TrEMBL record:
Residues 136-157 are annotated as: Disordered. It comes from the Bacteria. Gene3D superfamilies: 3.10.450.50. SUPFAM superfamilies: NTF2-like. This is Nuclear transport factor 2 family protein. Residues 11-137 form the SnoaL-like domain. Residues 140-157 have a biased composition (Acidic residues). It holds the Pfam family SnoaL_3. InterPro entries: NTF2-like_dom_sf, SnoaL-like.
Amino acid sequence: MSGARTDIEAVEAANTALYEAVERGDMDALSQLWLEDGISVVHPGWPVLTGRGEVLRSYALIMANTDYIQFFLTDVEVSVVGDTALVSCTENILSGGPAEADGTAGPLVGGLVVATNVFRRTPDGEWRVWSHHGSPVLVENEDDEDGGSVDEGDVEL
């Protein structure tokens, strides 16, 4: 196995761990996946957030206000150049609101977000998130026969 292949697999694993931490609502795991300095995030519809405090606070707010979320990543592309890696993917998101009064599951909503995740290799060889940028995908409204209307995908993390 070549070094490049090993790096790609390590970056893929770090990228997967990022989404799994959000799905579990695990702030400790999420915090360990990010670099200490110079980080940024753009959640769909949000302004750019910079610095560890702002970035982690944004995830804490999202996770505190999301009862259920699951990511199905497609179109994953990984590129590694030296100690920097770029991951682009489509986040197929399934999220849900609060449970109904009778205990049944709340409504589920799907959405599409295209994301770019940038990773840096730390001096100890670990890949950490440097930046995440998510943009909603506009999809055609099936009710519009003319194809002229679009709906914005749901907001992702």
